[in-house]
Write a structure and sequence with these properties.
Blueprint: E1 12-14, E2 20-22, H1 26-47, H2 52-69, H3 85-98, E3 108-109, H4 114-139, H5 144-167, E4 173-174
Antiparallel strand pairs: 1-2, 3-4
Length: 178
């Protein structure tokens, strides 16, 4: 099977279920940004091996989330289940990591180490994905648990960035206002 179909050469693509839309449609931007987030999480996994099991699970969840975003309105396409308990799992991981960290008293900047920086980039991409899904929801209904998941995932990624710094023996870079 060839990887190219030539069906998108004029700037349109197919959603799950067959509807065709412009490649700059907010729905495409939404799930494309989730895909970008997934790739960035792969970089975090490569730079901080200890997080691999939980991040692999997040990657699987993002793939499911992306399939829901790629599903067009009125589609009868059978989707994998998006489980709202995933938010609780993220909260449990956030609480576990936070219990080992010093209380956050200042804003911190990315870059205490490479894994920390990759994690912050993932957090920023996650926030962008969340904003795009909110914008999509204003146009076409989206399961709001997807928005909740992305919101909590960005909190998880921030906490993970701090946890990585702590476990690598690095120092957080504290933002000093001028």
């Amino acid at each position: 099977m060839k990887i190219y179909t030539k069906k998108g050469d004029l700037g349109e693509t197919s959603l799950l279920g067959g509807n065709r839309v412009s490649k700059d449609h907010i729905r495409i931007e939404s799930y494309g940004t989730v895909d970008e987030l997934n790739a960035q999480i792969g970089l975090v996994m490569c730079s901080y091996e200890a997080a691999r099991p939980v991040l692999k699970k997040v990657q699987d969840q993002l793939f499911t989330l992306g399939s829901h975003l790629a599903n067009g309105a009125n589609s009868q396409f059978k989707l994998p289940e998006f489980n709202t308990s995933w938010v609780i799992e993220l909260e449990t991981e956030i609480d576990r990591m936070t219990s080992e960290l010093a209380e956050l008293k200042n804003f911190v900047l990315p870059g205490s180490d490479m894994a920390n920086a990759h994690c912050h980039v993932a957090r920023c991409i996650c926030r962008r994905a969340e904003r795009l899904v909110v914008a999509l929801h204003k146009i076409e209904p989206v399961d709001t648990s997807i928005i909740t998941y992305l919101n909590r995932l960005s909190d998880f990624l921030f906490t993970l960035s701090r946890f990585i710094t702590y476990n690598m023996g690095s120092q957080e870079i504290v933002w000093e206002s001028r």
